[in-house]
Specification:
Low-confidence stretches: none
Number of strands: 0
Shape: rod-shaped
Radius of gyration: 27 Å
Helix content: over 70%
Distance between the termini: 33 Å
Number of helices: 8
Largest sheet: none
Strand content: under 5%
Order of helices and strands: HHHHHHHH
Mean pLDDT: 88
Amino acid sequence: MYHALYASLLAGSLFVGMLILLEVGRRIGVRRLAQDPDCARAGFGAIEGSVLALLGLLLAFAVSGAGTRFDDRRKLIVEETNAIGTAYLRLDMLPAAAQPALRESFRRYVAARLAVYRKLPDVAAAMAEIANGDKLQREIWRQAIAADRADGATPQAAILLLPALNAMIDITTTRTMAARLHPPVVIFIMIFALALASSLLSGYGMAGNRSRSWLHIFCFASIIAVTVYVILDIEYPRVGLIRIEDFDQALVQLLESMK
């Protein structure tokens, strides 16, 4: 919720800033036309077009990158669910006496993994759950090694179970790093700077009209501001309006199947 408010404030500030600079640019253009009507527009179209094209290109890359990262995060949820499910099924290869303790550890582990993302945007609480999950990973690994060495254990159990456990552990690091993967702040600074510069130049370009076209002014500022808001929201799918929680249902169903 706080992120949504923060993104809304940034987009709203950009919207207001663009409106102001559109008006400032228009007034500069009107003054320039009054002083030198012949030269006021010389070479202006190429500059305005170049800046607007650069802004459009940067927004396109930002939207594409945010969408790709959003899809990757959803895929990683499915991959982690499959990794845990595979390791859990391979517990059947262990001696019967060792299975109950490991299955209980798996249930606690899946619950801890779900809690990590449910605690967001409370980062401290989420990090505590990550630490709890790491502890359970070590516990599961020790239990699996002991079970593989117990009487009645087959060599195939270790060959199949341990790689599955390793994949289950590795995917947690991948998900954690993917959640932290965002464009550099300088990219957003460039977007804001180009949007404001485009507004100034566009306002200058409208100086030749006797009256303001409020429809064009508001549409231009609104479209850019909304696009920036969507980019910010998609980049943080756990704390904004665009959510990723529906895919957590895969882990919820896996936990229910373990009971």
